[in-house]
Amino acid sequence: MNLSIFLENVANKFNDILIYYVPRAISKEFKSKNIKVIVTEDIYRIIKFSDFHLTMFSTCSLESIVLGTPNIFYNYNGLANIFYERFLPNTNYSFYISDVEELEEIFSLKQIEIDIVLQDKLYKKNHLLNLKKFIEELDL
To answer: What is the mean pLDDT of residues 90-98?
Structure first.
């Protein structure tokens, strides 16, 4: 099932949520009223203020973790696993799903422990100090 059909199914099953769809190139119209196509907004702003970031294999999944928004990977034809599971394992900040039914449990989570990623996966220890030293060494 392609992403458009999957999103329609999600919107129909969970009609109390709002889905922002940000297309890469071609805009798509949806039948469900709780899917909004966004073409002019900043994607990072949208991700920052979202409860979850749903993708198949977008590199925005890396940025969403830094922004504090957990990923839900729709594992269409196994592509999400191929591209991302090695870097973003199936944990409490990245979820890999194959059908709409699996979303029920994810949506019921009360708290996502995102700081595990920020400390151990994406940044080198003392990253702020390292960055400050690097900038000082540039002597601008």
So the answer is: 86
Structure confidence at residue 131 (pLDDT):
67
Residue with tokens 């990977």: 73
SS (HEC) of 13-81 = HCCCCCEEECCCCCCCCCCCCCEEECCCCCHHHHHHCCCCEEECCCCHHHHHHHCCCCEEEECHHHHHH
**3-114 CATH, one of 3.40.50.12580, 2.40.128.110, 3.40.50.1820, 1.10.3210.10:** 3.40.50.12580
Q: Is 61 exposed, middle or buried (0-12, 13-18, 19+ CB in 10 A)?
A: buried
For the four alpha carbons of 12, 68, 58 and 22, in that order, the dihedral sign comes to positive
**How many Å apart are CA 83 and CA 78, to the nearest integer?**
9
Residues constituting the chain: 140
pLDDT tens track for 115-133:
444 444 445 566 667 667 7
Strand partners, 55: 73
